[in-house]
Amino acid sequence: MQHTVHSIATVHSPYKQKFGVARQPGLVPAAKVCIELNREFTADSIRGLDTFDYVWISFIFHDVITEDWSPLVRPPRLGGKQKMGVFATRSPHRPNHIGLSLLKLERIETGKTVRLYCSGADLLDGTPVIDIKPYIPFVEAKPDAAGGFAAEKPEELTVNWLPASGAGNLAAAEREIIVQSIAQDPRPAYQDIPERIYVMAICNYEVKFQIQGKNANIISIVESMSD
User: Which of 147, 159, 221, 224 is 20 to 30 A from 38, alpha carbon to alpha carbon?
Assistant: First the structure.
């Protein structure tokens, strides 16, 4: 029997473009999102969810849904030089473009619209959510499990604010998410061009920075004109 999957919610995220989004959930604790459920899902649909600390979010990689997929991909963790099977990676280029993230549930807001506020997100603004489930530690936590090529957390960059960057105009929370996101090194794995200036759209700002060795230097912060 054929069944159509429908979106149940939409993500409101500080990440406005694919470049710069945390590659895994939890790597950027300051990345906070609001998951807004469709009006048909009332407070009854999340009754009891507030007793859990984490939630599984199933979603659609909507920004690449028109792109093709391949059975072999080049994971950034391997420098973009070694191929792995798509089902051995978290690549968004998948046959069904479905993603899964484990997020910290900070609070729930009920009313005409139900909203879940989560942190540690790796979700693009506008992401369609197709399911929400509670994380159950006693069955799902496997701290001794083998992690394959992604067994350890990647090394982070040291992020520096250049004097003329305009960092003083930002709120502490905005500075925190920008630093944590750039520290993950958002560049394509194969790209190492010290003189290149990268632009990240985040928190309604355009952030320009350069990466030289293990240092990321933030050049400027300009409020985006798109919003």
Answer: 224
Q: Please, what are the domains in the chain?
A: 9-140 (2.40.30.70), 158-223 (no CATH)
In this predicted model, what pLDDT tens digit does every residue of 72-127 receive, in sequence order?
A: 999 888 877 899 999 999 999 999 999 999 999 999 999 899 999 999 999 999 99
For 4-31, the pLDDT digits (tens) are 899 999 999 999 999 999 989 999 999 9
Supply the pLDDT for residue 1. Answer: 64
